[in-house]
Amino acid sequence: MNASTDDERTALVRVPVEKWDADQHTICEDDVAEEVPVALEYNGISHAVMLASPYDLEDFALGFSLSEGILKDKSELYDCEVVPGCEGIQVQMRIATERFVTLKDKRRNMTGRTGCGLCGAETLEQAIRHPQATVGHAMFSAQQIYAGMKAMKAQQRLQKHTGATHAAAWMNLDGSVDLVREDVGRHNALDKLIGAMAEDKRDFTQGAALITSRASYEMVQKSATMGIGFLAAISAPTSLAIQLADETNVTLIGFVRDQSHVVYAQAHRLIRESK
Question: What pTM was computed for the model?
Answer without folding.
Answer: 0.91
